[in-house]
């Protein structure tokens, strides 16, 4: 059977990248909306109800509206917006976060694609919390830098209109109420929200995040090797994982590996462990593409899981 896919918001940043990733797939038919009708409710409703899977690449309110427009009981939904990430009845579309999550996604009608920032935090913290190497109430700080495409069409236009002049490093969300905090705390199993300090940089795409840990604030003071082993064991057990753990070598200052653009165009997220056991300090870093594993790559991975297609064969790692 050829599955019918409708990307609501196909002309936006995330939608376009999903379209590119699906080009050439013979197991799918992409139902496209005429550009001048992309906000026409009747036309969207028709296509949403004609699709086997609708992928919503819209602002939150429009995504909620799309779900309301579905009148049948067959169209399955992947929502790339923030609207349903902690909502009842929705599976969280981060397949690697738990050994059973791929199965949850496979059987769900409604799948919420994760936010780009939460994936680096959840990938680093959740296995450590589960291994009791990080208490759920640890006062975490999470920071990182994202390319400006993370802000969608408007931010892309703003940056590109300014040519080469904008600053390289712009912190934001310093009211500490970023919309990603609820999903971060819930899926990383934290009962204390992290202090999150995001930065946007003067490059289009890619991100690099960091989770510092004072290991002497953790019972039994884990070494860098302990943290690395826990993460490596966790992801080795996840089938078809796009999350990798780089080899541990405390003698290397592997800064080149932390280039936010290192995984652009792929669906890979790489975790790196840095530690100085004498100082009881460690950092778990994550590098990935905000439009890859952070958005469109993850959406296609989820689509493949829902359709029972081998995700690895159809996605660049
Ligand atoms: N960019 C990223 O890195 C990530 C984005 N996301 C999320 O994915 C979603 C899409 O983001 P992104 O692609 O960046 O955003 P963009 O602004 O680039 O694209 C959104 C698209 O939706 C269209 N649109 C807006 N309102 C409506 C409506 N009422 N009905 C139909 N279409 C509408 C827009 O059209 P027009 O431009 O003409 O207004 C545009 O084509 C957002 O919820 C975002 O938060 C998630 C993870 C990462
Ligand atoms: C640089 C930048 O502005 N990034 C966006 C996150 C993009 C993303 O993950 O999208 P969702 O909004 O769907 O979660 C932000 O911090 O709000």
UniProtKB/TrEMBL annotation:
User: A GO biological process this protein is involved in?
Assistant: L-arginine biosynthetic process
Look up the record and report any one GO term of the cellular component aspect: cytoplasm
A molecular function GO annotation: NAD binding
Q: Does the keyword Transcription apply?
A: no
What superkingdom does the record give? Bacteria
Q: Which residues form a coiled coil?
A: none
Tell me if Cytoplasm is a UniProt keyword of this record.
yes
**Which InterPro entries does the UniProt entry name for this protein?**
AGPR, AGPR_dimerisation_dom, AGPR_type-2, NAD(P)-bd_dom_sf, Semialdehyde_DH_NAD-bd
- Ranges of residues in domain Semialdehyde dehydrogenase NAD-binding: 4-105
Enzyme class name: oxidoreductase
Alphabetized, the UniProt keywords read: Amino-acid biosynthesis, Arginine biosynthesis, Cytoplasm, NADP, Oxidoreductase
Give the signal peptide, or none: none
Q: Which reaction does it catalyse?
A: N-acetyl-L-glutamate 5-semialdehyde + phosphate + NADP(+) = N-acetyl-L-glutamyl 5-phosphate + NADPH + H(+)
Family matches, as CDD domains? AGPR_2_C (cd23935), AGPR_2_N (cd17896)
Q: Where in the cell is it found?
A: Cytoplasm
Q: What does this protein do?
A: Catalyzes the NADPH-dependent reduction of N-acetyl-5-glutamyl phosphate to yield N-acetyl-L-glutamate 5-semialdehyde.
Q: Which NCBIfam families is this protein grouped with?
A: argC_other
What name has this protein been given in UniProt?
N-acetyl-gamma-glutamyl-phosphate reductase
In its UniProt entry, the species of origin is given as Devosia ureilytica
The organism's taxonomy opens as: Bacteria, Pseudomonadati, Pseudomonadota, Alphaproteobacteria, Hyphomicrobiales
